[in-house]
Design a protein that fits this description.
Belongs to the hemerythrin family. This protein has 6 helices and 3 strands; from the N terminus they run αααααββαβ. The protein has 189 residues and is mainly α. The protein has 2 domains: 134 residues, Hemerythrin-like (Four Helix Bundle (Hemerythrin (Met), subunit A), Up-down Bundle), CATH 1.20.120; 42 residues, no CATH class. The chain has a 3-stranded antiparallel beta sheet. The model has no long low-confidence stretch (mean pLDDT 84).
């Protein structure tokens, strides 16, 4: 597998995690260059240690981010992270031969596949639950979520979160899922 270049399509829309993912891609690319040329085993060990140390920091930060958005796959991701760390520890401690093959396994299978497959699930969840996450984070920060009362053809009154209200006020149209009619502002609560 060729290691792809970092692209914004890999973003999970968290600046800290995205910067860390970019750095991990950079390390993977440097590792890829070592794999394709004649190098000393110590160079490979050095990049393995750099990758290992950076991954521990990254996994910690990524798990904190997943917790902050209520990501339901946190426990599974955490278990995967722990397994990767155990495997890397074992690999670094027991590396005697086939440095390049082992480095390729780490960079391609563990690192890149993990980011491209597993971590992208975090972004899919964040995107699908954006409004609930904002409300949850506002509540955690002690902010009172302002609600607004709206109506449609089938409901005389229902609550809308401030984030949705702001979108409607900026010109975005929202329709009732039941009757299909546009919703109309009634009052603030």
């Amino acid at each position: 597998m060729a290691i792809p270049e970092w692209d914004d399509k890999f973003s999970i829309h968290n600046d800290v995690i995205d910067v860390q993912h970019k750095k991990l891609f950079d390390i993977a690319h440097r590792a890829g260059l070592l794999i394709s040329k004649q190098v000393d085993g110590n160079e490979i060990k050095k990049i393995l240690v750099e990758l290992f140390e950076y991954m521990k920091v990254h996994f910690h930060d990524e798990e904190a981010y997943m917790a902050s958005i209520g990501y339901p796959g946190l426990e599974r991701q955490s278990a995967m992270h722990q397994q990767i760390i155990r495997d890397m520890t074992d690999l670094i401690q027991n590396i005697r031969y086939d440095f390049k093959q082992k480095l390729a396994i780490i960079t391609e299978e563990w690192l890149i596949n993990h980011i491209l497959k597993e971590d992208m699930q975090i972004e899919i969840y964040r995107k699908a639950h954006e409004e609930e996450i904002k409300a949850m984070q506002a509540k955690q920060n002690g902010e009172k979520e302002i609600t607004h009362i709206y109506k449609c053809a089938c409901k005389p009154a229902f609550k809308v979160l401030n984030t949705v209200h702001e979108k409607i006020q900026s010109g975005q149209a929202f329709h009732c899922k039941k009757c299909g009619e546009g919703i109309v502002f009634v009052r603030d609560e």
